[in-house]
Amino acid sequence: MVKNGLSATEIGNPYGLVPRASNRLLELAGVHEKADGGWKLTELGERFVNVVDEHNGYGGSASRSWSKTYFAPEMLDELNSTPEMVEEAKTIYAADLAVDALKRAADKEAAEEHFRQFQEKLALEDQEFEVDWKKVAVLLGGAIIVVGGTIVVVKYGPAIKRKWQEKVTPHLDAAIRKVLRRPAESED
Fold first, then answer.
1. Each residue of 16-42: pLDDT tens digit?
2. What b/e sequence results for 127-142 when a residue is b if at least 16 CB atoms lie within 10 Å of its CB, and e otherwise?
3. What global pTM score does this model have?
4. Which residue ranges make up each domain of the chain?
């Protein structure tokens, strides 16, 4: 990784400028101009630039390569940075910060409005949906009866059947014979 020259940050350091303000100073000096979310060099800037390509060697979603721009130290003599230009760069930077803050505030307000509308929609849907507790009670009671009946039959069914055959069936058979006037069957 070879560094031949000064970065925009290093150019702004003697003036007490942060990196974004340094870029604004270079813009005022005619070195580069704002374009496509970044900076595009002008003819003057191209005379003093050294672009170094770097990469991190990783694949996947990580950025593999990027370019860094360094300016020749001689460019400082050509800039003729006056205190007025430095102040103007600071003013433009402050305006950029204000615009960014206003955009964030507007985005936040839009997001909050969207959230409020969503909450109101949910509240309206909740009002439209009412539970008929009588139906719930009937369904729950029916389910309890079916489950309870199943448990009784499975668990106690064989014992009930045995008792029925021992106690009730002989009396029923006797009653039916009496009604039909049949003689008792022999148990041979």
1. 899 899 889 988 888 888 888 788 888
2. eeeeeeeeeeeeeeee
3. 0.55
4. 8-95, 134-188
